[in-house]
Amino acid sequence: MRALNRGVFNKNLINVQVKKAKNLNKGCPRLFLTNARSIKNKMDEFEATLLKYKIDIATVTETWLNDEIERIAHIPKFKCLFKNRNHRRGGGVAIFVNDKFNEHEVNEHNLCQFECLWTNISYVNNNKTHNIFIGAVYYPPSAPGADDIIEHILNTVDEIRLTNPDSPMIILGDFNYLNIDSLTEQLGMVQIVDFPTRDVSLLDKVFMTHPELYTKPKKCTPLGRSDHSSIIIHPCHELPPSKYMRMQVRPYRETSVRSFGQWITNYNWNWMFDRNLCINEKVNGFFNVLKGAYNHNFPVKQIRKRIADRPWMTQNVRRLLDARQRMYNNCTKAEWRETRNAVQRSIRSAKKFFYDKSMRGLKNNDPATWHHSVRKLCNLKNRTMLKFPGHSNQDLANDINNHFASVCQQLPPVDVNALPAYFPSPEPPPKIFPGQVRRLINKLKSKKSSHPDDLPIKLIKEFAFEIATPLAHIFNCCLNEGVFPELWKLATAIPVPKVPNVTSFQDLRPISLTPIFAKMFESFLTDWVTSDIHQHLDIKQFGCRKGSSTSHYLVDMIQSVISDIVKGDSFVDICAVDFTKAFDRIDHTVIVRKLVDIRVRKSIIPTICSFLTDRKINTKLRSEHPKCCIRYISLEGPMYQFMI
Fold first, then answer.
1. Structure confidence by residue, pLDDT tens digits, 43-71
2. Which of 154, 277, 391, 590 could be cross-linked to 281 through a Cys-Cys bond (beta carbons 3.0 to 4.6 Å apart)?
């Protein structure tokens, strides 16, 4: 620990000499510091300011956010880090990092009690990777623990310097009247802001280990109605802004569709009718042939996409932003406020015009695109995913994969010997005709999420006639052999948060994506099971039945409650029970036994048993898959839910 009052080092600490930065004069980020005094209602103006001045790193103090409303404070093409004050109103810090920089949050230093946030920004210049450490600090006025927060800053800087002695460090924030002599004397940092930022007081400060990399800070207009001036700091030498970003896409062109169609209409599927091939060989061959032709006719292309402003940004908004800055520098406060309010009105008007012109019609015609566009327009981010310091995405995907399968693996697989006699079946299994498959393909919804290895659904629908015949043959072979193909038992699970801020694996639920052809085969099995057990279903069962839903159950329950109440001298008690992992805890042997007992046609029981056996899960997290798939006997398909 440092002896703060004496301003000297303890003997146990190492004094790290800071070298001058080398080869860092190009590519340093452009910095922005502001005290927002609640950023919640200033996000539009804040985003417009970042875009107008081409800010790379923005530090915000007094965000006044908490973990519940943090999701509204996100900006496209920026990574957002927050340190919120949850126990009372006010405070909080945030760092917004442009996507062109790599950001690595220094988690071990962000677990402190102070409103301090640390991150490591890296970028490539001259084929070398360079690091800059950024710290955001907010110290409330007259708050206790001044020595403690200084001690935290000193220790954090020391620990970072031990492993990165040549990397520049920048600390930005609202220090109020905190005594910061220790930062300049003991750390050798330079405070570069030389103008008052709130009335006549210098409260917002910037400390640097390498001030030679940046020009003199510029005073900028406050954010919204905040009484703190903002600060913009330009690097001495900036890299020319990138006008393009590179992306890999697989274009769906009309010429590619025609090329694929010419191939599939002339392809000979006779090899599939070889009696010596088992069903798994046929399914794998069918998949490989289709996938190979798709990859050949729809090749992956690398494209350059122009980095443009937000679609609602207009020339009038840009003009008013410039006018606001001129008014702030040269005119009276009343004139500046008038221009500031005009900026806010112009942004709202531009967003409304863009919505009316480009998005309103989507609400009825394309609800999915409308919902996605509204979330993007409002800067709403998806719920935060779980983060573990020191864990790679690969390790985290493995851990989540094991968690999803842990409950299911406690149950035994289907025990055929414990089932009533169902084989041999007195009648052959139902037969599926190509016309039935073709009609089912035409009912598929192109905008639904599909398995990562599936062909695009619109391509399958385009050539439903050509695909229907070999697919119907595969379905019939599955029924005749009583086998559900292994390739169709592999599900890709997408972990989706159940709460705004994920703190454990229990806060995640898996959304399983199974191959589209497996879903089609399941739908045939579901229809047959439905027709066989329809007379055995309870009239009070509303879930997993066509034409009914939980809304019907609520109406029925309310009707029952009202009927009892109107009789007089009665009261109603309601007990609601929610079983944790209910589907995952069902014994599949019990399910099959019940199907046999209620006289489901015996010819499809072997296929159902195979369907419930040796299923596997593969969790996808941020484009990462686990190293291996594991046994997972929880199912999300329509047939399974209906049987339960």
1. 889 988 998 888 999 999 999 988 766 66
2. 277
391 or 342: whose pLDDT is higher? 342
What confidence tens digit (pLDDT) does each residue in 86-116 have?
777 889 999 999 888 888 777 666 667 889 9
Structure tokens, 629: 């798939």
CA–CA dist 31, 215 (Å, integer) = 11
Q: Which of 61, 57, 40, 96 is nearest to 228 (CA)?
A: 61
pLDDT tens readout for residues 117-173: 999 998 877 778 888 999 999 999 878 888 899 999 999 998 888 888 888 999 999
Average pLDDT, the chain: 83
**Count of other CB atoms within 10 angstroms of residue 207:** 24
Tokens 């001044």 sit at which residue? 146
Token pair recorded at residue 259: 């090329």
Can you give the pLDDT at residue 307? 56
When divided into structural domains, the chain yields a total of 3
DSSP 3-54: BTTTTB--TTS--PPPPPP-S-SSSPPPEEEEE-S--GGGHHHHHHHHHHTT
What gap in Å lies between CA 204 and CA 178, rounded to an integer? 11
**What is the rounded distance in angstroms from the CA atom of residue 62 to the CA atom of residue 51?**
21
Report the candidate in 475, 594, 580, 593 with the shortest Cα–Cα distance to residue 533: 594
What's the domain range around 215?
31-233
Same domain, 397 and 337: no
Q: Are residues 145 and 171 in the same domain?
A: yes
- How does pLDDT run across 485-538, given as a tens digit for each residue? 999 998 888 888 887 777 788 888 888 888 999 999 999 998 898 888 888 777
Q: Do residues 32 and 221 touch, judged by C-beta distance below 8 A?
A: no
For residue 63, the domain's CATH number is: 3.60.10.10
DSSP code of residue 602: G
**CB neighbour list of residue 58: distance below 8 Å, 6 or more residues apart:** 31, 32, 33, 34, 46, 50, 78, 95, 96
Q: Tally Cβ neighbours within 10 Å of residue 504.
A: 9
- Percent of the chain clearing pLDDT 70 (strictly above): 85
Final residue in a domain of this structure, among 339, 354, 377: 377
Contact residues for 95 (Cβ-Cβ < 8 A; gap 6+)? 57, 58, 59, 60, 80, 81, 117, 119, 134, 136
Query: How confident is the model over 174-202, as a mean pLDDT?
Result: 90
The burial class, CB within 10 Å (0-12 / 13-18 / 19+), for 521 is: buried
CA atoms of 375 and 368, how far apart (whole Å): 11
Per DSSP, the three-state class of 280 is helix
One-letter amino acid of 76: P
Q: Which two tokens stand for residue 204?
A: 């917002």
> Residue 260: which H helix or E strand, with range?
helix 254-266
Q: Are residues 45 and 117 in the same domain?
A: yes
Render 105-136 in DSSP notation, one character per residue.
Answer: E-HHHHTSSSSEEEEEEEEEETTEEEEEEEEE
